[in-house]
């Protein structure tokens, strides 16, 4: 699916991206240089998951089956379920954020894939590909 809007980040870029964000009053935003932020405003993968439309992650449970059920779809396995979820959201203007290198090489962990709205991705400074 090479025509999918995909943003790919390395594990280090992912960590830096999350560290550059804060959450205040349920709003996710980019930290301003020199500004002080409360520890409670720190963003990690779990906090970021609250702003994603859907996700497939070894670190955070994205409830693929619950998301698929919300879409009134069925699938034979998790791979097919995720493909249907991705297709649903990407057809509606979302982008796929793929994080590479979080899992040990040879580890059978699932990939890190996050679906976010294009608007959120742009606001957070992610390099959104042209459609």
Query: How much of the residues is beta strand, in percent?
Result: 15-25%
- SS-based class: alpha+beta
SSE ordering: EHEEHEHHEEH
Placed side by side, the strands forming the largest sheet appear as 1-5-6-4
Low-confidence stretches: none
Shape: globular
Helix content: 25-40%
| Number of distinct beta strands | 6
Q: What profile does the largest beta sheet have? A: 4 strands, mixed
Mean pLDDT: 92
- C-alpha Rg, in Å? 15 Å
Q: Measure the end-to-end span.
A: 13 Å
Helix tally equals 5
Question: Could you outline the blueprint of secondary structure elements for this entry?
Answer:
Elements: E1 6-10, H1 11-19, E2 21-24, E3 27-30, H2 45-49, E4 54-56, H3 64-70, H4 78-90, E5 94-100, E6 112-117, H5 118-123
Parallel strand pairs: 1-5
Antiparallel strand pairs: 2-3, 4-6, 5-6
Helix pairs in contact: 3-4
Describe the structure.
With 131 residues, this protein is of the alpha+beta class. It has a domain at 6-10 and 45-124. It has helices spanning 11-19, 45-49, 64-70, 78-90, 118-123, and strands spanning 6-10, 21-24, 27-30, 54-56, 94-100, 112-117. The chain has a 4-stranded mixed sheet with strand order 1-5-6-4.
Concise description?
The chain has 131 residues and is α+β, with helices and mostly antiparallel strands.
Notable traits:
131 residues, alpha+beta, four-stranded mixed β-sheet, two-stranded antiparallel sheet, 5 helices, 31% helix
């Amino acid at each position: 699916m090479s025509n999918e809007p995909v943003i790919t980040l390395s594990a280090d870029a992912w960590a830096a991206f999350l560290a550059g964000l804060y959450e205040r009053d349920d709003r996710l935003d980019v930290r301003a240089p020199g500004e002080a932020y409360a520890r409670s405003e720190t963003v990690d993968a779990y906090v970021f998951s609250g702003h994603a439309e859907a996700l497939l992650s070894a670190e955070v449970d994205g409830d693929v089956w619950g998301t698929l059920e919300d879409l009134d779809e069925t699938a034979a396995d998790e791979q097919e379920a995720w493909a249907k979820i991705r297709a649903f959201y990407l057809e509606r203007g979302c982008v796929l954020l793929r994080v590479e290198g979080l899992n040990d090489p040879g580890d059978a962990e699932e990939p890190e894939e996050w679906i976010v709205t294009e608007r959120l991705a742009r606001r957070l400074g992610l390099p959104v590909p042209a459609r």
